Amino acid sequence: MPSRRRALLLLAALTALALASLVAALLAGSYAVAPGEVWAALTGTGQDTAGAVVSGLRLPRALAAFACGGLLALAGALMQVLLRNPLADPYVLGISGGAAVGALLAMLAGLALALINLFAFAGAFAAMLLVFGLARGDGSWTQTRLLLTGVIVAAGCSAVVALILSVAPEHQLRSMLFWLMGDLSHAGTPWPALLVLALGLAAALPLSRDLNLLARGDLIARTLGVRVRGLRGAVYVLASLLTAVAVTTAGSVGFVGLVVPHLVRLAVGNDQRVLLPAAALAGGSLLVIADTLARTLVAPQQLPVGVLTALLGVPVFLYLLSRQAKGSAP
Amino acid sequence: MSSLLTVRGLAVAVGGRTVVRGLDLELAAGERLAILGRNGAGKTTLLHTLAGLREPAAGRIELCGAELAQTPPRRVAQLRGVLLQQQVDAFPASVLETALIGRHPWLKRWAWESAADARIARAALAAVDLAGFAARDVQTLSGGERQRLAIATLLTQQPRLALLDEPLSHLDLNHQIAALQLLSRTAQETGTALVMVMHDPGLAARYCDRALLVHGDGRVESGSAAAMLTAERLSALYQHPLRMVEADGQRCFLPL
Question: Are the C-beta atoms of residues B35 and B198 closer than 8 Å to each other?
């Protein structure tokens, strides 16, 4: 049983990690900025160039990365509970597929960035409504039905994405591929995503003990007094909206939503009261670190951050998994 | 004494087929009722209906004097507990954590399990012979250990009415008797009423006061265990000839 004290200690440690990752993101880059200048820029007393680089470029991008990572990890944790499947991620129900279709159509039409984001969000929302409508057609709402409907809608979306890629002119392909792999260089203002992350956590936390029971099965949750139908609907809508906001901000960054909840689960167990806020903090930190590496490793060229999240996350995850296996052996 | 569970004219249907019709039942504190019937006769469906997990096709169910369908789920969960037929664990969790989910209906939204809750859970684990298992991962338990953990979770819930679907499944012989003795002791000491779906009429005769026979075609018979559990009635129920043997004052039923 994770005691409340241990939970608070862990969350404090993850908050420190998040702050450290943000500071590293502000310091790192091709234009050298001293720690003192970062402080000056943040407090609004900075010099021209350093201040502009830190508060105008690096800070919004780092905050956007944190928000996206947090949103994806939180949505992934919720999806895993909703589908009672450790392999579920925020994209499994076709949300990112819908967003990709919307975004790529907007790019194909040569629309402006704001419209690309709008189309991405509309695509994600349409996919969510489609899956929701089809999956509860006969009111049964089983995990298998929801999962199958989502997987099929996602498959349909990736077919459309492939179609768009094959007819798109050469010069648009690169930006389309970057969108598909996840990229924060066009992230824009981070505040909407941060606000949604805070609201999402605030909405999920009061439900977290109910979610602990939902993770053990619909029927057992109902025997212990959980209103399962309403809860599942709420979790589905919440996880979908979080995912939609994340992909609208940064494209479909892979891996964070699948692996961060698992990493956190290996460290703290499956109590959603700890897992949900811890996943949001850890996911945010991972994406900030990955994005900082993505823009500095081969600077001035930038890598798509989705590639980095996988390259960073896979070894860490495999290490934790093997340690866990050794630990639980008799 | 007022009745914990009152059932009037209950009908239960599965896939358009009525398996229970016109059931009347009253269960008082401390009473133990066995439900017997062939596979697919509707025992589990009936149990789930009594638990409020399923809508009845007709009739009324009252739990502690209040209409079951109108009672808020959390209140229902404080009054009645259910042991489900199967326990499936998709995610790892410790044995103690799993027993503690029984406290869920008693905790306020932001409350965490207290030391008192943990004491209740640990006592329940000790009662089912799982005292040393608190930190074990449920996914590493054997079938019988997992079943005993489910019984401990139900005891941790401390309901006034316990509905148990095949409480003896996966249990070895000594744990079958231990589980029935534990449940009977709980019924006697705390006044918990028990409804148990069972497959061994001999054990039902020994550990239950009353029996409900579910024939699967809508017919149900209920009465005292002594009156219901006879070779004649059980042979008709299972559609297989049975002979009753008495040894040391206990009834046994031998399939012929």
Answer: yes
Do the Cβ atoms of A62 and A250 come closer than 8 Å? no
Each residue's pLDDT tens digit, B161-198: 999 999 999 999 999 999 999 999 999 999 999 999 99
Partnered with residue A49 across adjacent β-strands are none
- How far CA B18 is from CA of A103, A266, B166, B198, in Å, comes to 53, 48, 22, 21
pLDDT of residue A6: 82
* A182 DSSP assignment: -
Q: Does A271 touch chain B (CB under 8 A)?
A: yes
B87 contacts in A (CB within 8 Å)? 220
Q: Tell whether B195 is within 8 A of chain A (Cβ).
A: no
Output the six-digit token pair for B142: 């054997």
Burial of B250 (C-beta count, 10 Å sphere; 0-12/13-18/19+):
exposed
Say what the pLDDT of residue A137 is: 58
Length of chain A (residues)? 330
**DSSP β-bridge partners for residue B11:** B58
Query: Measured between alpha carbons, how far is B14 from B57 in angstroms, rounded to an integer?
Result: 9
Taking Cα atoms as reference points, which of B27, B13, B39, B85 lies closest to residue B222? B27
**Of the candidates A155, A160, A176, the residue with the CA atom closest to the CA atom of residue A304:** A176
* Of residues B36, B34, B79, B85, the one with CA closest to residue B61: B79
Terminal C-alpha separation, chain A? 21
Instruction: Give the nearest chain A residue to B138 (CA atoms).
Output: A216
Whether A225 sits inside 8 A of B82 (CB atoms) is no
Nearest to B98 by CA among B175, B161, B162, B151: B151
d(CA B186, CA B151): 12
Q: Which structure tokens are listed for B18?
A: 């009525």
Interface contact flag, A269 B104, Cβ < 8 Å: no
Cα angle: B47, vertex B226, B25; to 5 degrees:
35
Top-confidence residue, A307 or B94: B94
Please report the sign of the dihedral spanned by the C-alpha atoms of residue B117, residue B119, residue B125, residue B130.
positive
Which DSSP category does B137 fall into?
A: B
Model confidence over A19-35: pLDDT tens digits? Answer: 999 999 999 887 878 88
Beta-sheet strand order (sheet of B220-224): B80-83, B161-165, B193-197, B32-37, B210-214, B220-224
Query: Where would I find the H helices in A54-207?
Result: 59-82, 95-108, 113-135, 143-167, 170-181, 191-204
Token pair recorded at residue A255: 């891996």
